[in-house]
């Protein structure tokens, strides 16, 4: 699943490079083959001309008779086998090629970004997005492909806008796709949205251009029936768009917190948690008092980050959702991650120690370090880091150390656009800054779940977002977690 991580997507560039090299090799071999065949043809033509000068004499002379017979048997046989010879170098390692799922994953990521940033197809196709030149102008064929893939993932609303854009951009000089194909695809997407009248109009226009176009002929009848049905019964009510509250505006960074809240938040040095902090105090930025959320600045160096990247890259897999009992791949979390244990590298151990210094909590009850990288439009929809176990059941039974009392998340990269960590219930959004870490408690001081810690990773628009999570569990923290009042002081 290349699409689940920008790091993996980078391999596609290498893959394309090697495929082009194979193609070049193939073309060279072909050129050699064609040159050989030209030479043979010239020789044979010359011989034929000789034979045609006096056919009878030619075939009656034993030498020339032998020559023509031999040419037809041996030479032509050589040519025949040469023509059939497969000069193509095998396209390298086809198993590593991306799949249609990758293309779908990318298009779905694009759809998320369009929704959050309210981008229409016209703007994206122009290449100038959010006032930045992000890519070249898209061709009608590009727009058509995106529209068709969006249709394939049932996102007809956006598919329609892309197919309209394909049609708008279509010219006879720059086709890459036929106008009729676009019209058919648009007609289909419109019909899926209940827009039967416009769908039929397009279908009729296709039939005017190509009276025996199979697809248009097949859809005309059903469309007419649906129009009659709609006139008589109306359309079933549309499924309401899900309400994400302030999630989108937090992701865009244009949600403004009241000045009275901001006025209570400070930046300070943290010196008291451990003796080490006396000589290297932590830079703390308060983000919210209740639930308690802070950002530590400059807590992990570029060098340490490079090491974490290097040692996690080979083990990165598509991230799952769920608890110990049931884990699965989900569209709600599109990233890749890998787990690092303390013994793997001194840097991993150092991060664990630092997490202990920052939080004051014991790492005896912490999970391994999870390194994550997001893909195109990669996100993690609003969720809680704790679990609510069924009555009488233990949270995280495999770990056996209680629920996730706190989360520490290190940012291992900057992100050019997007990728904020947001808390929709309390209206807090934090944009990644390489080297910083967020800390928050997931549970109330009495151990019950604090539902206000609902949080999400916003889709990454541009850049490669890397994070490292350390989830800390409850056991052994009883006398370590400072009470909320201490924190405020
Ligand atoms: O990447 C982020 O900003 C948040 C990630 C997160 O919430 C998680 O992995 O549980
Ligand atoms: Fe989370």
UniProtKB/TrEMBL annotation:
SUPFAM superfamilies recorded: TPR-like
Pfam families, per database record: 2OG-FeII_Oxy_3 (PF13640), P4Ha_N (PF08336), TPR_P4H (PF23558)
Record keywords, A-Z: Coiled coil, Dioxygenase, Endoplasmic reticulum, Glycoprotein, Iron, Metal-binding, Oxidoreductase, Signal, TPR repeat, Vitamin C
Origin: domain of life: Eukaryota
Family matches, as InterPro entries: Oxoglu/Fe-dep_dioxygenase_dom, P4H_N, P4HA-like, Pro_4_hyd_alph, Pro_4_hyd_alph_FE2OG_OXY, TPR-like_helical_dom_sf, TPR_P4H, TPR_rpt
PROSITE patterns linked: FE2OG_OXY (PS51471), TPR (PS50005)
Positions annotated as TPR repeat: 180-213
Subcellular location: Endoplasmic reticulum lumen
Residues in Fe2OG dioxygenase domain copies: 365-474
EC numbers, comma separated: 1.14.11.2
Gene Ontology MF annotations: iron ion binding; L-ascorbic acid binding; procollagen-proline 4-dioxygenase activity
Known cofactor(s): L-ascorbate
Family: Belongs to the P4HA family.
Protein name: procollagen-proline 4-dioxygenase
Organism from which the protein derives: Anopheles atroparvus (European mosquito)
Lineage, opening ranks: Eukaryota, Metazoa, Ecdysozoa, Arthropoda, Hexapoda
């Amino acid at each position: 699943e290349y699409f689940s991580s920008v790091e993996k997507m980078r391999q596609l560039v290498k893959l394309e490079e090697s495929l082009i090299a194979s193609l070049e090799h193939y073309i060279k071999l072909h050129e050699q083959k064609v040159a050989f065949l030209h030479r043979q043809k010239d020789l044979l033509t010359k011989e034929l001309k000789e034979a045609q000068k006096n056919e009878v004499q030619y075939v009656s002379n034993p030498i020339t008779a032998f020559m023509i017979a031999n040419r037809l048997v041996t030479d032509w046989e050589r040519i025949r086998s040469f023509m059939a010879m497969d000069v193509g170098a095998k396209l390298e390692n086809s198993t590593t090629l991306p799949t249609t799922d990758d293309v779908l994953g990318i298009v779905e990521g694009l759809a998320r970004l369009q929704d959050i940033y309210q981008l229409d197809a016209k703007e994206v196709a122009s290449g100038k997005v959010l006032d930045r030149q992000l890519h070249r102008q898209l061709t009608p064929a590009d727009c058509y492909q995106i529209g068709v893939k969006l249709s394939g993932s049932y996102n007809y609303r956006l598919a329609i806008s892309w197919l309209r854009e394909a049609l708008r951009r279509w010219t006879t000089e720059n086709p890459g796709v036929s106008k009729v194909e676009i019209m058919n695809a648009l007609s289909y997407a419109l019909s899926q949205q209940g827009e039967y009248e416009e769908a039929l109009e397009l279908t009729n226009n296709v039939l005017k251009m190509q009276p025996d176009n199979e697809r248009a002929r097949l859809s005309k009848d059903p469309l007419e029936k649906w129009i009659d049905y709609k006139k008589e019964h109306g359309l079933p009510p549309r499924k309401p768009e899900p309400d994400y509250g302030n999630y989108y505006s937090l992701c865009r960074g244009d949600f403004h917190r009241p000045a009275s809240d901001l006025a209570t938040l400070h930046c300070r040095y943290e010196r008291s948690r451990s003796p080490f902090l006396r000589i290297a105090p932590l830079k703390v930025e308060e983000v919210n008092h209740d639930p308690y959320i802070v950002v530590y600045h400059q807590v992990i160096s570029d060098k340490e980050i490079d090491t974490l990247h290097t040692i996690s890259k080979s083990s990165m897999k598509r991230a799952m959702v769920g608890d110990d009992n049931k884990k699965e791949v989900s569209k709600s979390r599109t990233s890749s991650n890998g787990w690092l244990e303390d013994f793997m590298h001194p840097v991993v151990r150092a991060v664990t120690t630092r997490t202990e210094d920052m939080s004051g909590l014991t790492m005896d009850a912490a999970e391994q370090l999870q390194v994550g990288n997001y893909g195109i439009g990669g996100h993690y929809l609003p969720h809680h880091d704790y679990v609510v176990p069924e009555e009488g059941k233990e949270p995280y039974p495999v770990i056996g150390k209680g629920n996730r009392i706190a989360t520490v998340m290190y940012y291992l990269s900057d992100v050019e656009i997007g990728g904020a960590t947001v808390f929709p219930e309390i209206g807090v959004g934090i944009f990644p800054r390489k080297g910083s870490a967020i800390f928050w408690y997931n549970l109330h001081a009495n151990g019950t779940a604090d539902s206000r810690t609902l949080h999400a990773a916003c889709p990454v628009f541009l850049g490669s977002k890397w994070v490292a999570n350390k989830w800390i569990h409850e056991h052994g923290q009883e006398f370590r977690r400072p009470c909320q009042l201490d924190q405020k002081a």
